[in-house]
Amino acid sequence: MNNNHNHCPVEELQVSGISNHEWRVADGRLSNRSPGKVLGFIQRRGATFEVLDLGAPDRDLFFDTWMASVQFFAEAPSGVLNGAR
């Protein structure tokens, strides 16, 4: 379970292309004026995807797939705790 405040329900994630290898991930529940709307960025680097989590910008995160990098920003479904219901 992810306790980071920079995560939101998967159905509320907004992923916008910045270029052909960069995406912005935002919380669709928040206004465009909200300073917390942008959760982070994804950048394709060769065969991997690097995530910049604005909640922990000093930590390097890499994923094997684009979908896994997007899923990083999603909260665990309610009722799921450490992989068990």
Structure description:
This protein is 7% helix and 35% strand. It has 1 helix and 5 strands, in the order βββββα. The chain has one helix spanning 66-71; strands spanning 13-19, 22-27, 38-45, 48-53, 61-63. The chain has a 5-stranded antiparallel beta sheet with strand order 1-2-3-4-5. The longest helix has 6 residues, at 66-71. The termini are close together. The model is unreliable at 1-5 (pLDDT under 50).
Instruction: Give the structural class.
Output: mainly beta
- Strand and helix order: EEEEEH
Helix content: under 10%
Major beta-sheet overview: 5 strands, antiparallel
Number of helix segments? 1
Cα-atom Rg, whole angstroms? 13 Å
The tally of strands reads 5
Q: What overall form do the CA principal axes indicate?
A: globular
Strand order of the largest sheet: 1-2-3-4-5
**Which quaternary structure do these chains form?**
single chain
Strand content: 35-45%
Mean pLDDT: 85
- Terminal residue distance: 12 Å
Low-confidence region ranges: 1-5
